[in-house]
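Q: I'm a student working through a structural biology exercise. My instructor gave each of us a protein and asked us to get a predicted structure, then write a short paragraph describing it. Mine is GNAT family N-acetyltransferase. I'm not confident about reading structure output yet, so if you can add a plain explanation after the tokens, that would really help. Here is the sequence I was given:
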Amino acid sequence: MVENAMRRLCEREGPPGVITYRDGEPVGWCSIGPRTGIPRLAGSKLIRPEDVVPVWSIICVVVRSGHR
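A: Happy to help. First, here is the predicted structure for GNAT family N-acetyltransferase. I'll explain a few features afterward.
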């Protein structure tokens, strides 16, 4: 299920986030992108935009165990 969700993210235009590396080894991932590209945020009634300035949002950060 999680794998299918990531595959759908990767099929979209633009990268699904950024990967962090330590000594050449991937140790983390951060989902970041334009708020308008995140349907759940774009339509949120609780988290309203402050103004009309386009912003990016971080919605997920994953760090491999043992790394900070």
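A: Here are two points you could use in your paragraph. The helical segments are 2-11, 39-42. The longest helix spans residues 2-11. It's a good idea to check both against the output above yourself.
Q: Great, thank you!
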